[in-house]
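Quick log. Single chain, no ligands specified.
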Amino acid sequence: MDIQFDTKKLAKTFADAKTIKRTYGARAGSIMQRFAEFDAAVSLENMRTIPAANCHELTGGNKRGYFAVDISRNYRLIFRPTQQPPPVIDNGSINWSEVRSITIIQIEDYH
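-> predicted structure:
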């Protein structure tokens, strides 16, 4: 899967393991694991098959149209399909198997 970043600063943060560790501390290992899973995935549908990632669509407020994967108990990696509008199926829901490029927005504790 193609991975892009919402900002240049975020792209620099993900440029190497050392920077990820310095920025995210104890969560760095999980972040790098999710990043590797995205990199290996053909489409977003593949991420749905990884139970620990808990890949899900966000529905509330200003997060509508975004997705998240678990990093830790409270932290999530927030992303959106790069293609806008994203591919959908007949009923209007996202076509997970057609999403082959994502844009990482941020990592946050939204609980």
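The chain has a mean pLDDT of 94.
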